[in-house]
Amino acid sequence: MRRAAFISAAVIAALLGSSACGGPSGQKAADTPQVSADGAGFGTLPTERGTPTEGGVVRIAQSPGAGPNYIFPITPAANGSVYNVYQLQDMLFRPLYGNAVGADPKIDAKESLAAEPTFSNGNKTVTIPLNDTFTWSDGKKVSADDVVFYVDLLKAAVKEDAANFGNYTPGYFPDSVASVKARDATTVEMTLTKAFNPQFFLQNQLSLISPLPSHAWNKASVDGPALDFTVPANAKAIYDFLAKQAGQLTTYATNPLWQVVDGPWRLTAYNANTSALTMKPNEAYTGPQKPHISELQQVAFTSESAQFSQLRSGQLEVGAVPFTSLAQAPALQRKGFDVYGYPSFGFAYMIFNFKNTTGHFDKIIAQPYVRQALAHLQDQPALIKGVFRTAAVSSYGPVPAVPKTDFTPADAAENPYPFDVAAAKKLLADHGWDVVPGGSTTCTSPGTGAGQCGAGIPAGTPLTWNMFYGNQPAVIEQQVTALISAAKQVGITISSSSKTFNYLIQNFSTVSAKVNNDKWAMVDFGGFSVSNYPTTNQIMNTEGSYNFGGYSDPKADELIQASVFGDDSQAVAKEASYLSKSVPAIFQPNVDQVFAWSNKLSGPPGSFASLTQYRLNPEYWYFTQ
Amino acid sequence: MSVESDIRVPASTTGVQAEGGQVRSSTPMWRLALGSFLENRLAVAGIALLVVFVAFSFLGPLLYHSNQVDTDIGNTFLPPGDGHPLGTESHGFDVLGRLMKGGQAALEIAFLSALIATVIGTLYGALAGLAGGLLDAAMMRVVDVLLAIPFLFIVLIIATRFNATVLSLSLVLGAFSWLVPARLVRGEVLTLRERDFVSASRVMGATRWRLISRHLVPNALGVVVVNITFQVADALLAVSALGFLGFGLAYPQVSWGDMLSDGIDYLLSGYWWLIYPVGGCLVLVVMASNFVGDALRDAVDVRLRRR
Amino acid sequence: MDAIGAYLLRRLGVSLVVLIGISVLVFVLLHTISSSPGRAVLGVQASPASVAAFDHAHGYDRPLPLQYLSYLGDLLHGDLGYSYKLNQSVVALLGQNSGRSALLTGVALVLAVVVAIPLGILQAVKRNSAIDNGLTALAFTLYSIPVFFLALVLIEVFSLRLDLLPSQGSQATTVLGVLADPVSMILPVVTLTAVSVAAFSRYMRSAALDNLAQDYIRVARAKGLSERQVIGRHLLRNSCLPIITLVGLSVPALLAGNLIVETVFNYPGLGLLFFNSLQKEDYPVLMAYSLVVGALTVLGNLVADVALAGVDPRIRLR
């Protein structure tokens, strides 16, 4: 799974029975039950049924306003979105290490072009053994050269401009690769600049690689000669050429470059205005499952309600169920749809600005007891019932309890700070605050001793600050208002203001908008989806490029460092557990992504469960009659 | 911003112009106007409705207590039932109580912005009308430019930057609504200043300010008063549109437009109590303002005709 | 040059000045809010150096008057800028969407006029009767309903409860495609028409009433013409001209209503484009939209003024 990306919390859920269903256990990875019987999933994940028929057209809704708009697998920051990767690029150009078909965020050898790598030389040498399964559509097998090609192009891209690769963080992939070469046709050898935690490197960095057809794309112009891409100057020329070609959206379906694919699909039509597209099966596909259906149409929409209307009226086979339309779920089922939802792997949070000096906020929020008190004011069960209509799961840290992974901490399902207004009150009162419920709580015992407010908080300081939040989706406002209302009960006054998502990311970041540091205390624009190896590196570490609030904790830094550069694959679980208790932010329920699909369509349960993780595996689907 | 403000200017293309100056008639002018006004049943109904809604919004909470500050996030979207005659909305607030609170903000903004717009517009228009010539032309060109820019555009852009409060929304709406009264008043002033009583005052040495305040404004008052009522209606619609489009008041404030915005989000879930009650209130108040304005205009016409 | 020609020329000159004024105001407003799209385009993790490079490459770091002049220059060459969010030139975007918007607005406008004229005349002829009062009440009600509320109610009743009509406008990509899907356009057109009909019919009623009191009507009646001939031949013709004025003046309202209707019905026209661009802070599109709307408003006012001048000679001489 790719690295952390923004999701502006596409919140959807179904109002059906809350028991989760497991599928039948079978040999294929996609068949294993993807939902544990913990009540986290929604609706029913139907078992595979019926005899597969070949053919048929499946129309699937794109996420509103977020259709894929970049085909070349080195995606610039301006086009960075999960949809480009999962719903276009990965379907044509298989990633080196692909995720399991299902909701579980882990790499599956069956969906990958290589077996798990071996690390040696103190984790500084990585050997990747390609399997012999995948072939390019022009007949050539996918080889180690193709992997080297990708890395060389990527290096050239980020050297030219850091914004050329949305997943780029200086020092990490591809900077971390000192050298890469194809030892033979099926073995790639990488030497790293420093030792990385093997699981981190595999799950989060190697998974970024999509081998590209080096034999077909190694040129700098349409009719140019083949170039040796290991030469950096050539790599740059090739990258520039390919990027330029990728900028011509109207040619996506016709440009011969993009027809050389190793994935189960090829692009046959693309609408540059709306991002709607059509894919047909790649006849030359040699991967695990060739598509049964004859055509996949991704239909573009500009709003959730629009796509839901189309779904309801039978003009789509697969679409999302916005949580605002939950009540329609039973009607959908009666109309012949299967409805299912599951939380995506990620977290939503309200960010604190640790660098805001207005009203001494930075000093106040630096005090752990203040953050803990705030955490006690978050009533997740009520939110899940009232805001998400039971279609969400409580989440207490950066790694949610579900979907469960090898890296989920054992205590992920325990709430270190359950909803308790009295506990919040006590925490404040015990530290020298005069708590005035419904009024203004002020510091009456300044100082750094036990039972005193804390360093830098003068006497009489009130607990009052501002909070900005995204104006879409509506659930953000509901959660923010609920917190503010609860905070009033302990005399904390928070004023709120809604802004567009764009405005928030432009202006409220201690990383890129330092000039505004004193203007905001908290912000809520949604959350992150996390990579398979759920470290919060770059999000919660002191110098992280997504550490918008400037959270800084040496112990957290140490744990994150171990997650990324150490040797223990369980380091990330320790990191998550620690962060859950140190309240770097207010964590919010993890929302179910709910989808509905025609019950004429069937396939392994995992191939539908993966929808909830933004991924598409339509090659497993088939019509049952 | 809206078309009705423009077409309410005496639409007659043959324009009745009264001759001569002020005439002392046997019946006081205001009584004439009042009489005409009261004859119009719709107008009386309008006034009554306005009074009812003002009472509902401002006095209602004294009689019907509901908590509009503390959210009850576990009990959202309850249909009308015990304890909640109109159900609850997306934060768990009681809808009936919220209607009252929303009405307060909506009415305050509507009246305040109408007032601001009218005051600014009247002075601006009177000045332009009196000044005449190049200054008048320049001032009116400014009005033309501002009128041509889509109102929603400006307000939505500004709304992405400032915090919407009752005062700031009133100011912004007022700042964009003064254009039409300015035009109207200027038109009136242009007509009035050719009249004898103005020349007479000038001959007697009246300053421009005295002219404006003592003679022109009172005579243009009829038009101004009519315009205020339509401004109120327009402002109410505009506030609702803004709230609906997502740029409304922030918690704990709320206006009817914000409530409607909630309604559209959950339209497909069938929560009708989020839509019809607040929509009904909005429509009734706007309608009442329009009735009153229409009747006032007829009354002013009467006054003019009897001069 | 005759009086009308001179007047027209004068008004055109004024309109041009107004247009330039609009462009300056909108440009300044947008730039004071956000000086460059660099950060918005490149995303949050782009370094300040990348953002600065982007700004420099696209000329966003020049002084404002220079930027305005170059924008004006581009305008004169037909270049309205480039939308980074939608990856197309603004002209292309406007081109794709304006046809659909024009269709919606045009149909609603024509329907409104066609319905309002006979309604207004009927009301004038049967003044103060039950029909007149009833229609007046209806007009007032429609007039007072916010456009989006009417749209919501129509969707709730006809789409959700009765399941008769689709809840969103045609999603076809071409105007012809929209025409081929008339059922989906019923609700949007009805919404937009309803409010206009209310305003237009009131105006028609008022104008018809004024005309009915005129001498020429009395003369026509005295000459023995039937009531139908009086209405059809004389009243109708003379009351229609003010409608042109009204249509011209209602351009801003129509465009605003269009925005709301398109947003509620998710109809891919200029209004929806504007609203989505607002969310995404896509400034070139916002700029172009307001210029287009401003130009249309000025045009509408011009048409209205000229029509009025055609009727009332006194205005021409001012």
Features:
heterotrimer; A: 625 residues; alpha+beta; seven-stranded mixed β-sheet; five-stranded antiparallel β-sheet; 24% helix; globular; disordered N terminus; B: 307 residues; mainly alpha; 13 helices
Proportion of residues in extended strands of chain B: under 5%
> Number of DSSP helices of chain A?
16
Radius of gyration of chain B: 22 Å
Question: Which strand-content bin applies to the residues of chain A?
Answer: 15-25%
Shape of chain B: elongated
Structural Rg of chain A: 25 Å
Mean pLDDT rating of chain A: 88
Write down the secondary-structure element order of chain B. Answer: HHHHHHHHHHHHH
List low-pLDDT spans of chain A: 1-37
- Quickly give the structural class of chain B: mainly alpha
Helix content of chain B: 55-70%
Q: What can be said about the biggest beta sheet of chain B?
A: none
Quaternary state of this entry equals heterotrimer
Greatest interface (CB-CB under 8 A), with counts per chain: B-C, 54 and 61 residues
Shape of chain A: globular
Low-confidence sequence ranges of chain B: 1-19
Helical content band of chain A: 10-25%
Please tally the β strands of chain B and state the result. 0
Helix/strand-derived category of chain A reads: alpha+beta
Largest sheet data of chain A: 7 strands, mixed
How far apart, in Å, are the first and last alpha carbons of chain A?
A: 34 Å
Task: Offer a quick outline of the entry.
By secondary structure, chain A is an alpha+beta fold. Chain A contains 16 helices and 24 strands. By secondary structure, chain B is mostly helical.
Describe the model.
The complex is a heterotrimer of chains A (625), B (307) and C (318). With 625 residues, chain A is α+β, with helices and mostly antiparallel strands. Helix content of chain A is 24%, strand content 17%. Chain A is built from 16 helices and 24 strands. Chain A has helices at 82-92, 144-160, 198-205, 214-217, 232-246, 304-312, 329-334, 361-365, 368-376, 380-386, 421-430, 474-488, 501-507, 554-565, 571-582, 605-609; strands at 5-7, 42-43, 57-61, 118-120, 125-129, 177-184, 187-192, 265-270, 277-281, 295-299, 318-320, 337-343, 346-352, 392-393, 433-434, 442-443, 464-470, 493-499, 522-524, 527-529, 585-588, 590-598, 601-602, 622-623. In chain A, the strands form six sheets. In chain A, strands 1, 13, 17, 18, 19, 20 and 21 form a seven-stranded mixed sheet that branches. In chain A, strands 2, 11, 12, 14 and 22 form a five-stranded antiparallel sheet that branches. Chain B is mainly α and 307 residues long. Chain B has helices at residues 4-7, 29-39, 41-58, 60-63, 95-131, 133-148, 151-159, 166-177, 179-193, 196-203, 208-244, 256-265, 276-305. In chain B, α6 (133-148) runs antiparallel to α9 (179-193) and α12 crosses α13 (276-305). The radius of gyration of chain B is 22 Å and the shape is elongated. The two termini of chain B are 33 Å apart. Chain C has 15 helices and two strands. The model of chain C has no long low-confidence stretch (mean pLDDT 80). Chain C has helices spanning 3-33, 38-42, 48-57, 64-76, 90-125, 130-144, 147-161, 175-179, 182-212, 215-222, 227-249, 251-265, 270-280, 283-311, 313-316; strands at 82-83, 88-89. Chain C has a two-stranded antiparallel ribbon. With 318 residues, chain C is mainly alpha-helical. Chains in contact: A-B, A-C, B-C. At the B-C interface, α1, α6, α7, α11 and α12 of B face α1, α6, α7, α9 and α11 of C.
